[in-house]
Amino acid sequence: MNALKETHFKFPGQTSFYKGKVRDVYTIADEYLVMVVSDRISAFDVVLPEAIPYKGQVLNQIAAKFLHATEDIVPNWVIDVPDPSVTIGKICQPFKVEMVIRGYLAGHAWREYSAGRRELCGVSMPEGLKENDKLPEPIITPTTKAAVGHDEDISREGILSRNIVSEEDYVKLEEYTRQLYLRGTEIAAERGLILVDTKYEFGKSDRKIYLIDEIHTPDSSRYFYLDSYEELQQKGEPQRQLSKEFVRRWLIENGFQGKDGQQVPVMSPELIQSISDRYIELYEHITGEPFRKTELDDVQARVENNILKSISRLS
User: Fold this and answer.
1) Is the dihedral of CA 240, 180, 307, 92 positive or negative?
2) Residue 236 contacts by C-beta under 8 Å, 6 or more apart in sequence?
3) Phi/psi at 216 (nearest 5 deg)?
4) 287-315 per-position pLDDT tens digit
């Protein structure tokens, strides 16, 4: 299947290029960032060998919608969304932490809890919880933003003592994180979903904090279905969820957790299609709108042409 696995464009005024796990980022005239959201997929901080058709479009369009829906809480970096898979925005100096917030005991938090640990990123968790239980109140569990390798859990105290973020800025990041999560949970509930946990990234420009990157997407968030949550919890059964966790679980079941010496299992065409379908399903649930598939015949040319048009308007 045709998918946008990677790009190698050369744009007028281009001053740098960075290839992330999922995004290809072009800097234009040291003023704008062109973020191409590819169809690559990562898990356990490893980019998997096969791309997922429409995944980039889903992520970019959900992020664009939520960035617009939260700009009254915190300004964001977006200037233009010229293509379903592209966002162009203001260059910001990123904070070297990701602000993770959790309302439920799921994923990484549950793995830590089930291993007997009752503290995560300096935050205490009560005894007697089971997987996917709602926490007494949402907890913020930041991670360091690693340029290479794995992000690492870090406490508020660790961030401040290592001067990763100033206390003044960090207080604002926590405040924005809680407000954004509250807004995200309200929108999710309107769509019959629970926003279980999510992460936000922030940057600074002209001494002002901006929300950057994506928000409330299946790559950065976990969602449960609201209508079946209570019944499944009472029965002790797995939650129906829309997130990337099912990819992680498939990898774990096939002997891969990103550790040295482990090999990524073969991804069949059927698995790739099912992952693509899951991403589209989440898009339609969270936005309440039908997903419109873009043509995949020459996705590279479409993306490049739309970026060129936008750069021309901005210059």
Assistant:
1) negative
2) 130
3) 60, 30
4) 999 999 987 678 999 999 999 999 999 97
The string of DSSP letters for 136-192 reads: EEEEE--EE--SSS---B--HHHHHHTTSS-HHHHHHHHHHHHHHHHHHHHHHHHTT
- Dihedral sign for Cα atoms in the order 289, 24, 202, 12: negative
Burial class of residue 63, CB neighbours in 10 A (0-12, 13-18, 19+): buried
Predicted TM-score of the model (pTM): 0.88
CA 276 to chain centre: 16
Answer yes or no: are the C-beta atoms of 279 and 3 closer than 8 Å.
no
Instruction: Give the span between the Cα atoms of 150 and 171, in whole angstroms.
Output: 25
CA distance 166 to 151: 20
pLDDT tens-digit series, residues 225-262: 999 999 999 999 999 987 777 898 899 999 999 888 99
